Structure formats: C-alpha cells, structure tokens
TrEMBL record, chain A:
Keyword Acyltransferase among UniProt keywords: no
GO MF term set: DNA binding; zinc ion binding
Organism of provenance: Prosthecomicrobium pneumaticum
Protein name (Swiss-Prot/TrEMBL): Recombination protein RecR
Record-annotated Toprim domain positions: 83-178
PANTHER family in the record: RECOMBINATION PROTEIN RECR (PTHR30446:SF0)
Summary of the function given for this chain in its UniProt record: May play a role in DNA repair. It seems to be involved in an RecBC-independent recombinational process of DNA repair. It may act with RecF and RecO.
Pfam families: RecR_C, RecR_HhH, RecR_ZnF, Toprim_4
C4-type Zn finger ranges: 60-75
TrEMBL record, chain B:
Top-rank taxon: Bacteria
Native species: Prosthecomicrobium pneumaticum
GO molecular function terms attached to this record: ATP binding; ATP hydrolysis activity; single-stranded DNA binding
Entry's Gene Ontology cellular component terms: cytoplasm
Gene that this polypeptide is encoded by: recF
Pfam short name (any one): AAA_21
Protein name (Swiss-Prot/TrEMBL): DNA replication and repair protein RecF
Family per similarity comment: Belongs to the RecF family.
C-alpha cells in the first residue's frame, strides 16, 4: 500500500527502532531521520556503543542484574551492606530503587512474577538462587520490593515461604498513602491497607 | 445522601453520527424529555440507542466490539457526538473509533473538544440506564446474567468496581489453573488465596451496598397498585452472608480459610464453588410475593421495567445526575393500560428517555411535549 521512501538500510533501521518501548512507527521514523542526519555526531557513536554493549553486556550470575561485568557493579561494590538483599521483579525496578538512593544494599532480581495463567511457576523465577544466597550465610534481612499487584504479592508470599526455614528477617515495602497523596482520592483498598500498616509516629 | 440532594437533569439537544452502523451521516436535533423512535425492523432505531450507550464505560448496549459499529463500506472508523444542555451551559461530548493505516484503530473521546483518556470521563456529565429485549430472560436465565446486570448497576455508583471484578476473576482463574495441576505448590496457593480474599470481599461488599441502596429506593417509591410491581431484591452468596454479621477484615480471614479447606472440592469441580463468582441476585414479585422467575412473561416484563425505573432513580440519587434511559422495543409487549402507565411513570422520572418501537401508533399516547421521530434506513425525520 505505502511505497518505500528510503533504501532498505534505512527502512530496516526504522523497523528495528519501532520495536523499542515508547516508540511507534511515526516516532521511529523521526528518530531514524535524526540519526541519519547526524551521522558522525550520533549514528556512528551509537553504533559503536551498541557494538560494545553487545560484546560485554550480560546477566550477573549472583543477583540477575544486567551489567558489563560478572558479578555486576552492585554485587562487587564494597561500600554496600551485604547483609541486606532487596528482592525485585525486574532490572528496571532495581534501577528505580537505585535512582531513589534510599538504600545501599545488594539486590536479587527474580525475573518476573508467578502467574499460573501464563504458566510461570517458581522454577521459572530466580527463587532457588535467592534461597541459596541466604543459606550461604551473612544475610540478615530480605526486603521484598515487588509490585503491589496480585501477581507481585502472590510471588512475595511464595518467596517468604521458601525462606521460612532460614534465620533471615523477611520484610516487604509499606502499602498505603503515597507521599503527597490526599486521603480523599484514595480507594478503599489502599486506605484499609494504610490503616493496617500504620506505624508509630 | 438523600433525595434532597441537588440532581442535574442533562438534556440531549443534538446527536450527530458519522459512519456509525447503518448511518453514513446523521444530524438530529431534539429537545423533548420523552423521545420516541418509530420505524420498521432494521431501519436503525436501536443503532441510535447504541450510539448513546457509548457514553458510559464498558461495552455498549449490544455488548458489541467497537470495530463492529463502523459502517460497512466506510473507512473502518466512526464518530458519535452529542450536545448536552445542563443548567443552560451547553457541552459537547464525542467518542469514536479512528482508523489508522497499518495500525489498529484507536478509540478517541473528547469533552468540549478536549481529548480525554477514556470514556470513563463522561460519567461526570452523563449517566445511562437501559433495557433491551435481550434482558427479557433476566429472571429465568443464568445467575451470571443477573450478576452482570448487577455489576453494571454497581459500576454506575462506584467506578472502580469494574477493575476490582476483573482482578478478582483473573486471580481466581489462576487458582483454578494451579488446582488443575497434579501436585499444586501449596505456598503458591496460600499466596494466591491471600490475594483473592480481600478482592472477593471488596467485590461482595460493593454489590451488597448497591443492592441495599436499590432496595431503599424501591421501598421509597413502593406502590402496590402500580402497573409496574415493586421488586424485592436480595443478594445471595457466601461472603454476602458473612458480611451481614462480620466486619470485612473478619470476612476476609473466613473466606481465605474456606478457600484453603475447599481446595480438594474445587479441584474436583474445576472451579471455586464458594465466593462472589457464584453469587446471585434474587428478585421476587413484591405484591404477589413469588420469585420473579415464577411470574408470567408479562409480569416479568413489568417487573423488569419497575426495576429499571428504580435503577434510574438510584443512579440519580447516587451520582447527582439523572440518567438517560434507553428503552429498546419497549412498548410492543405492553397492553394499552400498562403503556399509558409507563409514559406517566417516565414523565415523573425527570430523566430524558429514548424509546424505540416498530409502530408510530404505539407512541400516540405520549404526553404533550414529547417528540416522535420516524426512522427509515439512513435517515430520521420528525413525525
């Protein structure tokens, strides 16, 4: 229906860019054009950066983070508290927590959540490696920083069960009123959770 | 919140359609509180009601996919716009499906020309209640039909109910899947049940609150001599019964225990036997004190109309907006006495009402100031 307006190299670039999250065909077209226009300034450095990433990027064999070294930068950082492990669903959650800078601990990436409808069970997630890390000693607390969704909380439940035989304190993120939130706008479930999880002032 | 609270009575002044169902284009101006659409079968009367039904969340009156509503032979999209007047301030609402080359069509909604994220935003200005011939078997049909009817009612009062029901049903399907395995992971089941319980109680509590409120509205307008008998309504279900004596937190704990104890039984059945997914809305013919499904066909229709009138009053009371009432093929099955009583009842409601019927003569008894339109394929003109 639509005739090609550029050569196959550019069309392929557009097609690949369009697969990136947040980019549709239209914005991919715009991005490709920007890259091609600034060939030396943008396209070549990007291609080099990508080639380097392809060469070095991998999954950390300890925590499941994505980095160019194995073990990853977080796992080898001596300034972090190795007795606390923050459990997250995905690398993006690890990055979000690091952006917040609220804790200098180590992490463990589960690689998803349990979901019977999608056929994702405990063996498909990195739960056993977490148990092994805790069993090896030196871990005092595991913080479950999973999403407050049904799947996330179900997963938290199973992880807690798997860790129950170890001398490790298991905690989870607080549920309730968001910072700057107005009670009037919260749904009943969130309010009930906030009341249940109230803390001394 | 009582009937004394201020209620807005929005009026539809204009309806325009583009490429919607049988209409390539339609521009209809109206003003009356009672609007009748007469015309032969297949002329496109219900299409107009369906177009209006898009201004409420969820699927429209026919529960059809949006793509099905695009006119055959058109570009694959459609647009519906209405102009409302409330308290003299005109407001334009629009919704439709925008075709995009090489990509799936996308739903667009606007209020006064400003795009809004979802049709849920229309609830600030307009509410809808409807009755279609497909609902005639409501009392004799499955409990699932009645739950859907009830959930739509709850949604009109509590916009979050839909998301809650979806999350609950999805989690329950997950548990069913787990139970179907030869040796289900017990910790996983514990976890999923811990998540199901609060959702189930929230769903049951929202339904219960709505039914209680509906029962109060019915009691307030109860008239044993009415052509539309008052309905007795009560919600039957495991959690609903718990909630009559227990606080919600306690009901959560009980239901969770019930799920754990019922795993073997539920696994054998392939589904969870107790919970809001198995609740039923029990309706009975008030004056006769018999279950609705045992009343005659005509009585059931009259009862259903009474229930929809009560629903309209409930929506007005709860939201502060008198809903548009869409009554598809309403007049045909009523005797002349009941028809006259219907028109009187509808006038008393204060809502704007849209009715369809094959024969214009059915609408001859409408009160003065009503409007009747004759619908022919692709065109509508005042009678």
């Amino acid at each position: 229906m639509t005739r090609a307006t550029a050569g196959p190299e550019i069309e392929r670039l557009i097609q690949l860019l369009a697969r990136l999250p947040g980019l549709g065909p239209r914005s991919a077209r715009r991005a490709a054009l920007a890259l091609v226009k600034k060939k030396e300034l943008l396209l070549e450095p990007l291609a080099d950066a990508m080639a380097a990433a392809v060469e070095h990027v991998g999954t950390c064999s300890v925590c499941g983070n994505i980095d160019t070294t194995d073990p990853c930068t977080v796992c080898t950082d001596p300034t972090r508290d190795g007795s606390v492990i923050v459990v997250v669903e995905d690398v993006s959650d690890l990055w979000a927590l690091e952006r917040a800078g609220a804790i200098r601990a180590r992490y463990h990436v589960l690689g998803g959540t349990l979901n019977p409808l999608d056929g994702i069970g405990p063996d498909d997630l990195s739960i056993e490696p977490l148990v092994a890390r805790c069993a090896a000693g030196g871990v005092a607390e595991v913080i479950l920083a999973v999403n407050a969704t049904v799947d996330g909380q179900t997963t938290a439940h199973v992880v807690t069960d798997r860790l129950s035989h170890l001398p490790v304190r298991v905690s989870r993120l607080a549920h309730g009123v968001p910072v700057g939130g107005e009670l009037d706008y919260l749904d009943e479930g969130t309010l009930a959770a906030a009341i249940r999880a109230r803390t001394p002032f | 919140m009582t009937g004394a609270a201020a209620i807005a009575f929005p009026r539809l002044g204009r309806l325009t359609l583009a490429d919607f169902r049988s209409y390539a284009a339609l521009d209809l101006s109206l003003s009356a509180p009672l609007v009748a659409l007469a015309g032969e079968n297949g002329a496109g009367k219900t299409n107009i009601l369906e177009a209006l039904s898009l201004f409420t969340p969820g699927r429209g009156l026919r529960r059809a996919e949006l793509a099905e509503m695009a006119r055959i032979g058109g570009e694959g999209g459609f647009a519906v716009a209405i102009a409302l007047s409330e308290e003299g301030a005109p407001l334009r609402l629009g919704t439709g499906l925008e075709p995009r080359p090489g990509e799936p069509a996308v739903r667009r909604s606007r209020i006064d020309g400003v795009p809004v994220g979802s049709p849920a935003a229309f609830a600030e200005h307009v509410r809808l209640v409807w009755l279609t011939p497909a609902m005639d078997g409501l009392f004799a049909g499955s409990a699932g039909e009645r739950r859907r009817f009830l959930d739509r009612m709850v949604l009109g009062i509590d916009a979050r109910h839909g998301a809650r029901v979806n999350a609950f049903e999805r989690a329950l399907r997950g548990r069913n899947r787990l139970l179907a395995e030869p040796a289900p992971d017990r910790a996983w089941l514990d976890g999923i049940e811990a998540e199901i319980a609060p959702l189930a109680v929230a769903v049951a509590a929202a339904r219960r609150a709505t039914v209680d409120r509906l029962a109060r509205v019915i009691a307030a307008h109860r008239d044993d001599a009415s052509a539309f008998p008052w309905a007795g309504v009560v919600l039957e279900g495991t959690i609903e019964e718990m909630l009559t004596t227990l606080p919600e937190v306690e009901a959560e704990t009980r239901y969770r225990a019930l799920l754990r104890e019922g795993r073997g039984r539920d696994a054998a059945a392939g589904r969870a036997l107790a919970g809001p997914q198995a609740s039923d809305l029990l309706v009975w013919h008030g004056p006769k004190d018999v279950p609705a499904e045992r009343a005659s066909t005509g009585e059931q229709k009259a009862l259903l109309i009474g229930l929809v009138l009560a629903h309209a009053r409930l929506v007005a009371e709860a939201s502060g907006i008198a809903p548009f009432v869409l009554l598809d093929e309403i007049a045909a099955h009523l005797d002349p006495r009941r028809r006259a009583a219907l028109y009187t009842a509808l006038s008393g409601l204060g809502s704007q009402v849209f009715m369809t019927g094959a024969d214009p003569a059915l609408f001859a008894d409408l009160p003065a100031g009503s409007e009747t339109f004759l619908v022919a394929p692709g065109a509508v003109r005042p009678l």
